[in-house]
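Hi R.,

Here's the chain you asked about this morning:
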Amino acid sequence: MKRNHWILLLLVCVSVIPVLIFRDYTPSNELRYLSLADEALRDGNVMTFYNHGEIYADKPPLYLWIVMLGRLLFGEHVMWFLGLFSLVPAAVTVGVMNEWCREELSERRSAAAQMMLLSGGLFLGLALCLRMDMLMTMFIVLAMRSFWRIYSVDGYSRNAERERWLLPIWTFLALFTKGPVGVLVPLVSIPVFLLSRRKLRTIGRYLGWRFWVVMLSLCALWWGGVYLEGGSEYLNNLLFHQTIDRAVDAFHHKEPFWYYLITIWYSLFPWSIFVIFALVAAWAQRKCYDDKSALFSVVILSTFVMMSAFSSKLAVYLLPIFPFMVYLAVAKAPARSRLLRWTVIIPEAVLALALPAMIVCACLEQTAWLGQPLFIAGGAVMTAFAVVALVVLLRGRDMWGSVMTASLGMFATILVAGWQLPRVNNMIGYAVMCERAEEIAEQNDATDYVVCGVRRSENMDVYLGVVPEVATAEEIVEGKWSGSVLMVRNRNLTKEPLAAYLANVERVTEGDYSILLLPEVVTPEEVLTIENQ
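And here is the predicted structure, written out as tokens:
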């Protein structure tokens, strides 16, 4: 990459440092990964994972190994270390795409494509989340780049020989990171592309004996280890339940086939209008006939159709095609187009409303927590950058400079607002709530923890060391959990029977939850025992 690309990438990485240091783990997935890793370390498992005793073959082991490694290195789970395995793959993906497209993109277009991809809603979000999707995307991009290097020299060179070994390795690593999607994108895209170029008979150069020997050998080592450690039940769950069952008739995340036609618009925000318009225009005007553009188009369209055909769907599943979409859109966008400029003006005008939006949210009861000083300051920064970006575009007609300005504004906003995260972590995760619960337990010599209305509470064992019991409101009122520390959703405390039963009990409130010590209840059996004594 050129020097200015490195500078932009460095600025992006610096801007997210506060988020990587101060943010709490989200209960939905991140906390579960930590709990899975802790359980595997306690049980001495390496190839198989269990979620509180139940088989968890939903994900391959690579990312969970990284979580386990962090725990072993630091003695605890460290956000900045785990965050590197999303941020660094995002940076590598951008670097590979810049190098791959250097002949098609001018320096300014390349910088704009880089910033557009990094600041796109879902790509940015997953670069800051502890998930394996960005790592898989990096391996898929590397696999497709290896295929291109073999194809572009017609398969005969020393470099092509090296890439023939790298192609199956990257493909396996994509599979080993997230599962079937990692291997299906290359295995579908490559034959479809060759068919479109009328070169399907050359497929053996890319997916020949060497590819399958490497792939099957690595898979055999993986599946053999799973069988030895977890037995046939675990292996069957991994190979069939988590693949065929989810593809044909999903047991969760089941969505209709048009699902991605909706999610794509907010997944690429604020650049979705530009990217989709530029791609559709390029395909309609037949601007993608050269080999590289055709390959990018095939990856985009074949993966989109394939993922739409599967029963299980999530917006994040389309992440691997976003690098190809953004870079192809920027490469094929006309130098001058009034209509195309409006696809940038509209989202930048929306970004310019960031400060007013933050002020309104701060005045609403449900979103009052967004009224923190640095959040308001972040909104002001975003508004300022967006206004400058609009001026650059409307006066100078510099679309790429405008895109880079708005993108930098987004990262400047993250940098400013990120320092406020310690004040709102009680709205993000469970760390603060569990810390308060432990304090109350220690002060009152309590040993049991109970939750009511708390989702995914089983993974609180990462903080508490034990899995809290799940209680109903009726059980609490009946005194079944008397003397225990209760963590309860605030709205549950406003409803009967808890509202009256706990009306006079002292509590600590953290975000949407309250922590309190349940009153001791003397049961009839205990009264009888006391009288007999």
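One quick note: The longest strand covers residues 485-489.

Cheers,
M.
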